[in-house]
Design goal:
about 280 residues, alpha/beta, two-stranded antiparallel sheet
């Protein structure tokens, strides 16, 4: 079981549970060395049309007027518990190229940023990574991942294989086809080039149980990580993607650890802040 976690969500994002302090106390109880607090950063309505904002569930993110409360809570916990555990402040955020100044603003507020591509811009529209990816629109997802990593603002690309959640090939089937293989290599090679970690996401196992057919996981997607194994310079960590404090070390995290061991995926125990 991992003893550090750098992917956590709290009540501020409107779809998770618990305060910053709840996570810190749980991490101390678990004997963690480090914990990164990375609730979903605000997404401004001005970033897209109202229809796009609604269809991408952007209301399930921290509101801008709550952000200072979140940051204050992080500062309070760092001072109170910093002698017991290393606490890192962060956000998980998206990447739209025309909003780069906002991401720079966010990076200036915290220790690090996670990049999570839940939506992306393609042919002038904002598409959803869960519902809108096929062998054509996959290009937009890959571009968002690479362009985000290229900025030097992001430390980790979380759930990089999310595109396989509902991917459709030319025949409308969920298959890891030539386009998916090419996308995988492009994401991995960019992560190495720009010194960004890739994450095996434990919450994806939970989502696979809830939303999948049971035949294989939606993500983490085995074929993605088989290819990742070919790249010895790639930095990989496990992230709980916890939406409540006890999920930092639950059965899905253990399954993710076992998955990595069984498939000889070389996991780093700690994350260094590189960006």
């Amino acid at each position: 079981m991992i003893k550090n976690n750098y992917h956590t969500h709290m009540r501020y994002c409107n779809h998770a549970q618990g305060e910053v302090e709840d996570y810190i106390l749980k991490a101390i109880e678990l004997g963690f060395d480090e914990i990164g607090m990375t609730d979903h950063a605000p997404i401004l309505e001005s970033f897209m049309t109202k229809e796009e904002y609604d269809s991408n569930w952007c209301e399930q993110n921290m509101k801008l007027d709550i952000m200072e409360k979140y940051l204050d809570d992080l500062d309070y916990c760092k001072k109170k518990y910093g002698n017991k555990i290393k606490i890192l402040s962060g956000f998980e955020t998206e990447f739209l190229p025309d909003q780069i100044e906002f991401y720079k603003f966010l990076r200036g507020k915290v220790d690090y940023l996670n990049l999570g591509v839940h939506y992306y811009k393609y042919n002038g529209k904002v598409l959803n990574s869960y519902d809108d990816i096929d062998y054509i629109t996959l290009r937009g997802y890959v571009d968002a991942c690479i362009d985000g990593m290229k900025t030097g603002l992001f430390n980790t690309l979380v759930h990089p294989d999310l595109f396989m959640f509902n991917y459709k090939n030319v025949n409308g089937e969920r298959k890891f086809d030539a386009q998916a293989i090419a996308a995988t290599r492009q994401i991995i090679e960019a992560a190495i080039k720009y010194n960004v970690y890739l994450e095996v996401n434990a919450n994806g196992i939970n989502n696979s149980i809830k939303y999948g057919s049971g035949n294989d996981w939606l993500y983490p997607y085995l074929d993605f990580w088989k290819i990742a194994n070919e790249y010895k310079d790639l930095k990989i960590i496990i992230g709980a993607d916890a939406h409540k404090s006890e999920a930092m070390a639950n059965e899905h995290v253990q399954i993710a650890c076992d998955f990595c061991i069984e498939n000889n995926i070389n996991i780093l125990e700690k994350m260094e802040i590189n960006h």
